[in-house]
Design a protein that fits this description.
The protein has ten helices and seven strands. The protein is of the alpha/beta class and 248 residues long. A seven-stranded mixed beta sheet has the order 3-2-1-4-5-7-6, sandwiched between helices.
Length: 248
């Protein structure tokens, strides 16, 4: 098994700031993107822009840019600012974004750290999206991040997040597992026989995950309007809201 840094205050760097992390990501990419393509299509379709409208959006925790590529395909005049903290993921993303040359910019941004955003992210920006990243942040950072997103958005700008969530109780968790196991008969056996590396990745995946209602509440507390769960299937959701057009 490849050497993996043992858990510290935050294990994200141990997963994503290594060649091992990117190799694992690439090895599971085909199946993952097949399952998630439709979800990202909806995320793009929820953005309030016309096909001939030029706008700039930020993609937080962008990784190799799967969500950004979907938005860029929908909106030919859009420009993406992909924010990530892993040089390895950004390097792979630049390869995968080659067909979009001139329509994207990568910016190094550690989402775990509160404060001013990098200068490479416009202020204001027309929209902010995130895909499979926010669940890696602890509760306090989720709250401060949502407040930062609101400030960075132009009035009327939207924030949309595609992410997994924690079940609200044991009964719901049992139902989610039952449905998942029927879809993938090998799932229960995989859960029971994880390797040490697989367990490490799973623990990092769920470490800061919280129920959906809690996160929707964070958005409302930050000052977003139009807050809703725009899509949900078992533990995966798209939720978001709009910065009010009136001054904050």
């Amino acid at each position: 098994m490849p050497d993996i840094e043992q858990p510290t205050e935050d294990t994200n760097a141990a997963v994503w700031k290594t060649d091992v992390g990117v190799t694992f990501w690439k090895s599971t990419e085909a199946d993952r993107e097949r399952r998630r393509a439709g979800h990202r299509e909806l995320l793009a379709e929820l953005l309030p822009f016309g096909p001939d409208e030029a706008f700039t959006f930020a993609d937080l925790g962008a990784g190799t840019g799967a969500a950004s590529r979907t938005v860029l395909d929908h909106f030919p005049l859009a420009h993406a600012v992909l924010a990530d903290f892993s040089p390895q993921m950004m390097a792979q993303g630049m390869l995968e974004l080659a067909p979009y040359q001139g329509r994207y910019t990568y910016v190094e941004f550690d989402l775990t750290r509160a404060g001013d955003w990098p200068a490479g992210i416009p202020a204001p920006v027309d929209a902010v999206i995130s895909s499979l990243a926010v669940h890696h942040l602890n509760d306090g950072r989720k709250q401060t991040l949502f407040a930062e997103v609101l400030r960075q958005l132009a009035p009327g700008g939207w924030f949309l997040n595609y992410d997994p969530v924690q079940p609200p109780d044991a009964v719901v968790e049992e139902a989610w597992l039952r449905a998942g196991d029927r879809r993938d008969p090998s799932a229960a056996d995989k859960r029971a026989h994880r390797t040490a590396e697989e367990q490490f990745r799973y623990d990092n995946h769920v470490r800061y995950m919280v129920p959906l209602d809690q996160q929707v509440g964070y958005l409302r507390e930050a000052g977003f309007e139009g807050v809703d769960v725009y899509w949900k299937e078992l533990d995966y959701v798209i939720y978001g809201g709009r910065r009010p057009r009136r001054p904050l």
